[in-house]
Write a structure and sequence with these properties.
Layout lengths: L6 H22 L1 H15 L7 E5 L5 E3 L8 E7 L5 E5 L5 E6 L4 E6 L9 E6 L12 E4 L4 E7 L5 H8 L3 E4 L10 E4 L5 E3 L9 H12 L7 H9 L12 H23 L15 E2 L17 H10 L5 H4 L7 E6 L14 E6 L4 E11 L14 E3 L12 E7 L9 E3 L6 E10 L2 H4 L8 E2 L1
């Protein structure tokens, strides 16, 4: 017959159980913390809820998870707690997405949305709303009330893109007859931080979780996972006052979970992650199907963790591994010898031309610590076919250079910081069949 352990063993087991629960909760709610910090940054920087947008061509001075400097962003924070909210998307080449406060996908917009670039009015409806809804809107019901609008305008001239993004509109449905003007704040030349790296591995992570819980309803899709938070003393509209022993466990859990997320993001061993068996390029998100981390029978938690530690946004258009996807993302953080990419070394990357991109392609460098654009004296984190002169050589290849010192000649080059590790995203917008069938592929990073 089993017997209860001795009191000191019971205390140890309880602590281990709480620690394990907290580690898993940290990893699962990392996207929620990321979104909460986005909401707070938007308001602090002058884009009030339901009334304002930040417009920016991202630079290294904007510390955000793997944003890029290819084309400008329009970012806004919406809240349907008091009733549905309207997002007006103008006609034209805008691609956008709406995610709720838990980074759950709500809808695509623009030429990747239902209107296919013709312009539309979207109506975002919270989970508790049961009132009448007017005609003339694309109605999207959400699992939470708060949401993020992220729109891009892929013009070669960023100022043209910004001008189009300034015609977006966001306002409560109740104000539709006399909708107030939105505010638009250009962040392109400013410094700001909207990045969970500021709380990585610290007790403060849990305080951000608490603010997120208090700011919205509990999404029914995460019913079980909210139970993990409840075991930690984190509940909506209840005080979060852990004693010193619990606070110590939560701090230790944050440290352990953050270490695990780093490994999931940048030291994954799953062979599915590799784009090609003879290359070190990896899919940032992968699955047995074509739905990102949403497998047919389960949520692929380790892939979800990998994605949200590196990046933000959830939309099927970013996760498809087939022709017709809106875009694709490949990750490289090791060279052809499988050594981590080091800012003290010089590397080359060979890109066969033409790249199978209906729109454009780019290579962006990111700092491993912040997962934001690398910040160097060159102040240039991206090489893009939109604006850079990327001319093939006589063999039909484009050779790109990466390292701390400028190479000889007028060659495409991005500077790196000695002493810092970095990783790269290769992005293809409007990828063609050759991007998937193996008939076209870039080289690995090779150290000179």
């Amino acid at each position: 017959m089993k017997k209860l352990p001795a009191p000191e063993q019971i205390a140890r087991i309880r602590r281990e159980a709480l620690l394990n629960r907290a580690v898993e909760a940290y990893k699962f709610f990392y996207p929620t913390v990321s979104m909460q910090l986005n909401f707070e940054a938007l308001e602090d920087l002058g884009a009030p809820v339901n009334r304002g947008f930040l417009i920016q061509l991202t630079t290294p001075d904007l510390v955000t998870l793997t944003q890029n400097s290819d084309t400008p962003y329009g970012l806004a924070y919406g809240d349907a707690t008091d009733g549905p909210v309207v997002v007006e998307v103008p006609a034209g080449p805008i691609m956008g997405v709406v995610d709720d406060q838990y980074f759950q996908f709500v809808t695509n917009m623009g030429f990747v949305g239902e209107e296919r670039g013709a312009g539309a009015k979207y109506l975002l409806v919270g989970p508790g709303y049961d009132g009448d809804l007017p005609d003339g809107y694309l109605v999207k019901r959400m699992h939470a009330n708060r949401f993020l609008v992220c729109a891009r305008a892929p013009f070669p001239d960023p100022e043209e893109g910004k001008a189009l993004l300034r015609t977006l509109r966001l306002y409560p449905l109740a104000d539709a007859a006399h909708a107030p003007e939105n505010t638009f704040v250009d962040m392109s030349e400013r410094k700001a931080v909207a990045n969970p790296c500021v709380v990585d591995g610290t007790f403060e992570f849990w305080n951000v979780v608490k603010r997120a819980l208090d700011g919205d309803v509990a999404s029914a899709t995460y019913y079980n996972e909210f139970g993990m938070l409840a075991d930690l003393g984190l509940r909506r509209d209840r005080a979060f006052t852990p004693d010193s022993a619990t606070a110590a466990v939560l701090t230790e859990a944050a440290e352990k979970a953050n270490e695990q997320l780093v490994v999931a993001a940048f030291a994954d061993e799953d062979p599915q992650r590799l784009v090609w068996p003879d290359r070190r390029w990896e899919w940032v998100v992968y699955s047995e199907g074509d739905n990102g981390y949403y497998e047919r029978d389960f949520l692929h938690l380790s892939v979800r963790e990998r994605w949200f530690y590196q990046a933000t946004l959830e939309t099927p258009a970013m996760f498809r591994h087939s022709e017709g996807a809106g875009s694709l993302y490949w990750l490289a953080n090791v060279d052809d010898e499988e050594a981590p990419l080091d800012g003290a070394n010089t590397y080359v990357l060979t890109v066969p031309a033409p790249v199978p991109a209906a729109q454009f392609w780019s290579v962006t460098l990111y700092d491993l610590d912040t997962r934001s654009e690398i910040n160097t004296p060159q102040f240039k984190p991206v090489l893009t076919s939109l604006r850079d002169e990327l001319t093939p050589d006589s063999a039909g290849n484009i050779t790109l250079y990466f390292g701390p010192e400028r190479p000889d000649g007028n060659v495409p080059w991005l500077q790196t910081n000695p002493g810092n590790s970095w990783f790269a995203y290769f992005r293809v917008y409007g990828p063609g069949a050759a991007a998937f069938d193996g008939s076209w592929k870039p080289s690995n990073f090779s150290r000179l």
